[in-house]
Design goal:
Elements: H1 8-30, E1 38-43, H2 53-58, E2 62-67, E3 71-76, E4 80-87, E5 90-97, E6 101-106, E7 111-114
Antiparallel strand pairs: 1-2, 1-6, 3-4, 4-5, 6-7
Length: about 160
Amino acid sequence: MARGAIDYGRMVEQALRTVVRDVLRRLAVEGLPPPHHFYITFRTSDPGVEIPDYLRERYPTEMTVVLQHQFWDLEVDDTALSVTLSFNDVPQRLRIPFHAIKVFADPGAEFGLQFTLEPEIVPLPAPAVEKKPPVATKPADGEPPTRGGAEIVTLDRFRKK
């Protein structure tokens, strides 16, 4: 990122990863109310991903897990989720950092998120930014006030109608 540039895409994806974390924290505490269930696709080769070697060999780039009927011991911290799932009737513990998640979907709620940017590997939430008072500037005599060229994008265009 160029000095002084604001990477809004990365900031939005980081915020949406926080949504995933918060939903999974709620699931860990309250359980899974019907009709919700979650499909989580993640990059298996990302740093911090912990899966059995045979799964990494079978899924060298990405893997999708489902949290619906048979999952146990879900734990969620600021950086990752850990869960026990059954593979061929053998329980296995997985640790999936949030930065490794590519897709998070809840078909029961017709909701899904797809992460397309390579994430910066930082804990969630991002550190708070110190607020500074706005700097007021006055245009020189005879010059019109300047306005930024911001594009406003509403989330309504992405919602199912």
